[in-house]
Amino acid sequence: MTLDELLVLVIEPSKLQRTIITDHLREIGLKEIEAFEEATPALQRMQQVIPDIVVSSMHLPDMTGTDLVTRMRQHQALTDVTFLLISSETHYRYLEPIRQAGAIAILPKPFSQDALAAALRNTMHYIRDLHETEPEEQSELEFMQILTVDDSSLSRRYIIKGLNAIGIEQVTEASDGAEALQIMKHQRFDLVISDYNMPNIDGLELLEHIRRYSDQPTVPVMMITSEQNQSRLAAIQSADVSAICNKPLNYDMLKQMVRRLTSGVI
């Protein structure tokens, strides 16, 4: 699969911005591009043909980008469509639901062509690996046991699909740290991938319990978070986390980190 085989839907109310985005996409190598001013006709189009990528602004005339991705994820056929947000929005209230819904990237507005190209390369790698994983690559990872912990089922689904694309099939889910600890009493893992902000037992408390009290104290733990508070991030580092990754999680970063953390070279 190549870039010119992908169908991209661009949703942007500004004609100038739509032109800039579509021109950038064509310069990168994408050919099948359909542009919309509002989200509703784009959603109607998605009922007719499933796009490979949706590129959307945050503030649309008929709904927000958050509303759009939420409605997409409510349809089984659209749950795995990669979603790329381009927005000047920085408010947590708007961005966090998009992170939780498994956006592949959030680009600031204005964006550079290099940043857009990097996000699309990441998307292309994800789509390619998901559909074209080679048997020898699968055999290398097929026995690996991964525990993914997140209170958002959509976030867990995104992580699992990414792991599947890498070639990992044996993934166990937990909705928070408390459930994860119960599971770890009965099952051993090669890697734990955890969200930070969760109810009951959060990611930091889970990490501390694993390191101090579990019978798997050396298992690699990757923390995924949108947290910006430096003191909280420092606390995670001090608790001996193996890696901290920003949310939304870049697929190429996931692939790189999983291979590094499970190879024994930390």
Automatic annotation (TrEMBL):
| Domain (Response regulatory): residue spans on this chain | 7-124, 145-262
Recorded hits in InterPro entries, A to Z, give: Bact_response_regulator, CheY-like_superfamily, Sig_transdc_resp-reg_receiver
GO BP terms: namely: phosphorelay signal transduction system
Which keywords describe this protein according to UniProt?
A: Phosphoprotein
- One matching Pfam family: Response_reg
Entry superkingdom: Bacteria
* Gene3D superfamilies registered for this protein in UniProt: 3.40.50.2300
Record organism: Marinobacterium marinum
What residues bear 4-aspartylphosphate in this entry?
A: 195
Q: What does UniProt list as this organism's lineage?
A: Bacteria, Pseudomonadati, Pseudomonadota, Gammaproteobacteria, Oceanospirillales
Record-given protein name? Response regulator
